[in-house]
Amino acid sequence: MPVRELSPVKPSRVRMSDIFREDDLLTFEGWLRYQGIDAPTSSASELAAWHRMYDDVRLRAGSTPKVGLMKLRPIPGEHRYAVALREGAELWLALWVRRSPKEEFFVMAPRGAQSWDPHASYHLDGRVQMKSYGQTVFAPQQRQSLKGPFRGTEHLGVFFGYGPKRVGAVWDPAAFSGVVEVTTGVLGPKQGG
């Protein structure tokens, strides 16, 4: 199975204070920094309000089940390409790109709640849309058709809530045609969100 590794971002382009690790969000101080809040210049009442929001986020995150090993059944003619984050010896599935037998493309994000199912789709006629909880979240856009010549690149959307370790989707090499392995510092709650 082909594995492609992305190089870390060059330190000259990114300040160390800009880099977040997923584990930074487990502390109130790290979460504040991620939100762009300067705690020393915030009033006590502002910090109390931020702390209530942080506690609510942590409570909801703790009640969401982890995905575990993805149970993706093979579909003839379909290809799947994983984007996985390397943390030590583990590869955590951040998202995957699916090319359907009809040669349409889908960007899928694993989530513990089955009803969530956030994904972007690029259809043969060039229609691009994003869905979450079965509902379209942004107005569909018309891009270049997938029939015939294709020039350049097309943007497929934004996924919020980046946190592959917390989501807990384990990369299974048998379920994918290939993987892009991303090292720490390339993607993160701020860089890859």
Describe the fold and architecture.
The chain has helices spanning about 30-35, 45-65, 165, and strands at about 5, 70, 80-85, 90-100, 105-110, 120, 125-130, 135, 140, 170, 180. The radius of gyration is 19 Å and the shape is globular. Strand 7 (about 125-130) and strand 8 (about 135) form a beta hairpin. Strands 1, 3, 4, 5, 6, 7, 8, 9 and 11 form a nine-stranded mixed β-sheet that branches. It has two domains: about 15-65; about 70-180, no CATH class. It is an alpha/beta fold. About 15% of the residues lie in helices and about 25% in strands. The two termini are about 25 Å apart.
Quick structural gist:
Helices cover 17% and strands 26% of the residues.
Counting helices, strands and paired strands, the structural category is alpha/beta
Pick out the low-confidence regions: 3-16
Number of self-contained structural domains: 2
**Secondary structure tally: strands:** 11
Radius of gyration: 19 Å
Overall pLDDT level: 79
Share of residues in helices: 10-25%
- Proportion of strand residues: 25-35%
> Could you tell me how far the N terminus lies from the C terminus, measured between alpha carbons in angstroms?
27 Å
The description of the largest β-sheet is: 9 strands, mixed
Q: What overall form do the CA principal axes indicate?
A: globular
Number of helices: 3
Order of SSEs: EHHEEEEEEEEHEE
